[in-house]
Structure formats: structure tokens, C-alpha cells
Amino acid sequence: MTATTSAATGPTRTGEGTTLPSVLTADEPGIPVTDYLSHARPVVRQRLREHGAVLLRGFDVGGVDGFDGVVRAVSGAPLTYAERSSPRSTIKGQIYTSTDYPPAEEIFLHNENSYQSAWPLTLFFHCMLPSQTLGATPLADVREVCRLIDPAVVADFERRGWMVVRNFTPGFGVPWQEAFNTTDRAEVTAYCERAGVEAEWVGRDGLRTRARRAAVHVHPVTGERVWFNHLTFWHVTTLAAEVCEGLREVFDDIDLPTNTYYGDGEAIPDDVVAHLRDCYRTARTRFDWQFDDVLVVDNMLAAHGREPFTGPRRIAVAMAEPSTGEQTP
Predict the structure, then answer these.
(1) Superfamily grouping for domain 144-279
(2) Cα–Cα distances in angstroms (integers) from residue 186 to residues 182, 193, 198, 204, 226, in the given order
(3) Were both Cys, which of 23, 207, 296, 320 would link to 75 (CB 3.0–4.6 Å)?
(4) Can you say whether residue 191 is alpha, beta or left, with left for phi > 0 and alpha for psi between -120 and 50 degrees?
(5) Is the pLDDT of residue 225 over 80?
């Protein structure tokens, strides 16, 4: 069984001339995707490292169990979603819904779990039901993003790093009990110590965490420099203007549900974050979901987000291949 290589609907190209994502289309509709992957896994992984993302289109996935089989065929056992930053629901096992945010909201481009000490190297998305309008999962090659950013800005973050401060305040955002999958404060404190996160219990049931991370990494397989962080995504100015203004009226910056800083704790100027957003948007590409599409993403080569949408939309997600960014053979 073979597949045809093609460009995604409405193809765009990165600065290096590679299509994002690379599309592999079944020669005949309905070929079981796991049958295809039994011999095509090397092709998928090669294209993943070259392009940053691969879209498998026209195959029969076989529902949630079949999607789990895709993850295992390409990358091994799926991972549990830990230290959560967004609301998700478990579909089955380690297969989750995409972020359960209101459909009218955009989710800005980001690299999954880049605020943690370890993260999934490979992400999987399965279109179980496409939306009526929009609803794409846009991508951006973070090698290209790194090239687009003012070199002086990159150098500043390479020297200083970045820091995310999260305030788990009852009534705002994901509760700490959900983020850490426990109601035991001692377990949270122990996890944070292991993960290089400062934890501070605030008031009766509040928690503030601080995590200092590198902004620029070297891909552990390709050796390329990548802009890999959550600093733009979580900066308060990346929220819709009215939401940003409202939060800043209610909270001091240090008490915001989430905000980012230089690694030494100094505030990042709003215009610097605006420049970073512009670079992501310049590198951004998109395609329209079709039923049973499977998107495989190298989490350290491509950022992803979500367009607003109308109508029902159901995208299953999974994560695999834990990484700390260390070089591998």
C-alpha cells in the first residue's frame, strides 16, 4: 500500500521552502491507516523531521482505538497530560479532547508543554468531526520564527531566559487540583520540586508557581535552533484587548492568572511581545480539516494553535515521546 505526497489545502511555504504540513494521501480511499503505517513509518518520521508536521489524509483511522494505534505505530505509547494549562476532557485512556475553550476564541500559536522541564516531542491530532467554518489548527515552523525575530531580541532571551508565573485562584482558569491531577498539596509541592518549579501557597486555597526556562533550544534529533517556549502565548497582552484590560484592572501583574517575564523577573515590554506575535503570524500556515485526517506534529519544530469556528468540531489529541531537549543519536 502506498500514499501520494501532496500539499495541504491552500498550501503555503516556509522560508526554507518546505511545505507545512507535508501531506500523505491514501491512493485509494478507506485504506486502514495502521496497515499503511506498518511499512511507511520511516517515511512519516523522515518527513516529520524535515517539514515539522505530516498530514495523513484519506485513510480509515478506525475511531478512537484506531487513533491510539496510530500513535503507537509512529511513536510508541501515548503520554498522560500532566501540569495542565488548559481544560481538556479524557476520551479514552491517554486520548483527550482538544482544548475545551469557547469556539469564538482563538488559541494562539504555541509548543505543547514548553513551560515544563520535559515535554512531548510528538503530537497527534485526529479530526473526528470538522467544523462548519474555520476551526483550523494553524502551524508555524519555529525554525522560521527564530529567523524572523530581531537577532537582538533572540540574544536577550538566550542570555536571560524567560519565566512564567501562574496563579491558581479559585474561580479563574484551571484549578490547581485539575492542573496537577491531585487534591494533595504535598504531592503538588513534591512535583514542583522535581520539575524545577517554585511553588508558593497563597491564602486559603491559592497557589502561585514560577518556572524559569530557556527560550531557544536545539532540536535533539536535527540539531537545529528553534524558538521553543510559551512566553508569547502566556503574556497578558496576547489575550483579546478587552480581556487583557479587564484582567489588569482586577489584578496586579504579579497576581494575573498567567503572565510571562524575562528569566530574571523583569517585565517584558509589550512592544517586544507584539513583535514576537508578528513573527509567529508571518510564519503561520493553515489547512481545512477533513473527516479522519490525522496530523502528526514535531512539537519542537512546529507551533500549533486553533482558529475560532462555528458548528460542532471534535478533534482528538494525543502526545508521545517524552523529551528534555537532550541530543539523541
Answers:
(1) Clavaminate synthase-like (3.60.130.10)
(2) 10, 11, 13, 15, 35
(3) 320
(4) alpha
(5) yes
Residue (of 306, 313, 270, 319) closest to 291 by Cα position? 313
pLDDT tens across 87-140, in order? 668 899 999 998 778 999 999 999 999 999 999 999 999 999 999 999 999 999
DSSP state of 262: E
In what order do the strands lie in the sheet containing 90-92? 3-7, 22-26, 53-57, 294-298, 119-129, 314-323, 95-97, 90-92
Give helix 270-283 / helix 151-160 axis angle, nearest 10°: 110
Identify the band that residue 170 occupies on the pLDDT scale cut at 50, 70 and 90: confident
Question: Is CATH 3.40.190.10 the right assignment for the domain spanning 3-8+18-100+118-133+286-323?
Answer: no
Report phi then psi at 328, rounded to 5: -120, 160
C-alpha cell at 40: 511507511
Q: How far apart are CA 96 and CA 116, in angstroms?
A: 19
Q: Which long-range contacts (CB under 8 A, 24 or more apart) does 196-200 make?
A: 196/117, 197/117
Query: Measured between alpha carbons, how far is 277 from 227 in angstroms, rounded to an integer?
Result: 12
Number of H helices, E strands in the chain: 8, 22
Element (H or E) spanning 319, and its range? Answer: strand 314-323
| Number of C-beta neighbours around residue 323 at 10 A | 18
